[in-house]
């Protein structure tokens, strides 16, 4: 992803949402009629699966759900060979997997035909939805000059979100407990993009209250990711003081928003914030569909201009 491509996908997502919300009947002919998508899910999901399958249906495409029980990814043949075979049947592979290496191997077998729907390092579709949601509140280009504060684990969600937010001209302040920092390679990519003149636009701390100072949006995520269930007690103890509350948000700017990509747990954010007027978490969840639709259209070289 680069700034110009990010801008293009977001613009497409905004137009898709407007078009489908305003039309009383489905678009016809559907722009992706006859297109098929292999949907590989090593990790189960609610939002990713439902948003992808529904979005593909709206566009006329067929989503083929493949769980770890349906295919043995990397067991009897290489992942590269599997992706090569799948794209002889299907036009695109959408993959929600455990390891980034799996995404890389899939891409080797099917260059330019793989959508990363989540791995241990990145979650680009979530970032697209988050940025679309913020632009709905702040206007197109509204991220420029704004500050995002992250409070929680230095995980795949913030890896893409900090890069996307910086691409659009914002600043990012990240608070993680000691030992839960963001991936060093991803941080370097962000720093290289900013350069020395804008290095101050990316700030790291272990103090949650310090991170939210002057923030326009505060974001957190699940502390215990899928596959880390045995670490629950340890992580909750080490994340003490990181729950997002109105007291914590008092250091943010007036009108600061709150986001969480779901599923949400009480220890991460209390009810007052999660269900309060600052929260835009359900708009954020809805926009998972519009952004994956925009992504698939873009991969096929199409846009809603041709769909009207």
UniProtKB/TrEMBL annotation:
InterPro entries, alphabetized: Asp/Orn_carbamoyltranf_P-bd, Asp/Orn_carbamoylTrfase, Asp/Orn_carbamoylTrfase_sf, Asp_carbamoyltransf_Asp/Orn-bd, Orn/put_carbamltrans
Official protein name in the record: ornithine carbamoyltransferase
GO annotations of cellular component type: cytoplasm
Family classification: Belongs to the aspartate/ornithine carbamoyltransferase superfamily. OTCase family.
GO MF entry, a single one: ornithine carbamoyltransferase activity
Species this chain originates from: Triparma retinervis
Enzyme Commission numbers on file: 2.1.3.3
Keyword tags: Amino-acid biosynthesis, Arginine biosynthesis, Transferase
GO biological process: citrulline biosynthetic process; L-arginine biosynthetic process via ornithine
